[in-house]
Design goal:
This protein is an alpha/beta fold. Helices cover 38% and strands 19% of the residues. Strands 1, 2, 3, 4, 5 and 6 form a 6-stranded parallel beta sheet that branches.
C-alpha cells in the first residue's frame, strides 16, 4: 500500500488543515496510509546543525525519505505559508534532501473565500526550489475557502468539495505511480 506523509502547516488544535488531512486519511484509506509529521516540535533550522541535526529532525527527514509521496496542507498567514511550515521545509531541503524528487500534493484551507491561493503560490515556489515534484497545478489545486461552512465535527462535509477532492486524489495517486515507474 502507498505510504504518504502529511505535513500540516498549522499548529492550532482545531486546525481546518488538519481536519482536511484527517478527512483524506479516512476517505482514501483503501488507497494509501497517511502518517502525519509533527512539525511543531522541530527546532528552528540552523545551518550550524544541518550536518548533525537533532534526533527529532533525523526522524522527520527519515519519515519523508521513506514515504512514497507527501501531502502538504497549509493555512494562509499574511498572504503566505506559516513559519512552522517554512521551517519544516528548510530541514527537508538541506544535506540529504529527502524531498527532492518526491511527489508532493499541496493543498490548503482557510476561512477566507480565496482559500489559500497566495500561500500555495509561495509554497509551490519553495517546492520548486527544493526539487520536489508536484502534480501539475492546472485543475488540481485544492484551495478550500469558507472553511467554517464546509467542515463539521472535524471533517470536510461539503459534497462539491469532496467530489473535487476525489478527482484530484485519483490523479495524484496515478501521478505517484508514474513517478515510481520512471
Amino acid at each position: 500500500m502507498m505510504k504518504i506523509v502529511a505535513i500540516v502547516g498549522s499548529l492550532r488544535k482545531d486546525s481546518f488543515n488538519m481536519q482536511l488531512v484527517k478527512t483524506i486519511e479516512k476517505r482514501y484509506s483503501h488507497l494509501f496510509e497517511i502518517e502525519i509529521a509533527d512539525i511543531g516540535n522541530l527546532p528552528f533550522y540552523n545551518e550550524d546543525e544541518e550536518k548533525s541535526p537533532s534526533e527529532k529532525v533525523q526522524n522527520y527527514k527519515k519519515m519523508v525519505a521513506d514515504a512514497d509521496a507527501v501531502f502538504i496542507s497549509t493555512p494562509e498567514f499574511n498572504w503566505s505559508m506559516s513559519g512552522v511550515l517554512k521551517n519544516a521545509l528548510e530541514w527537508l531541503s538541506r544535506v540529504d534532501k529527502p524531498i527532492a524528487g518526491k511527489p508532493v500534493l499541496p493543498m490548503g484551507v482557510s476561512q477566507g473565500v480565496l482559500g489559500t491561493v497566495r500561500a500555495q503560490l509561495h509554497l509551490r515556489q519553495v517546492l520548486g526550489s527544493i526539487q520536489a515534484t508536484t502534480l501539475p497545478p492546472a485543475g488540481n489545486e485544492i484551495f478550500i475557502g469558507s472553511a467554517g461552512q464546509k467542515f463539521q465535527d472535524g471533517y470536510l462535509t461539503d459534497e462539491g468539495t469532496l467530489k473535487f477532492l476525489d478527482l484530484v486524489v485519483d490523479k495524484f495517486v496515478t501521478f505517484v505511480k508514474e513517478q515510481e515507474s520512471k
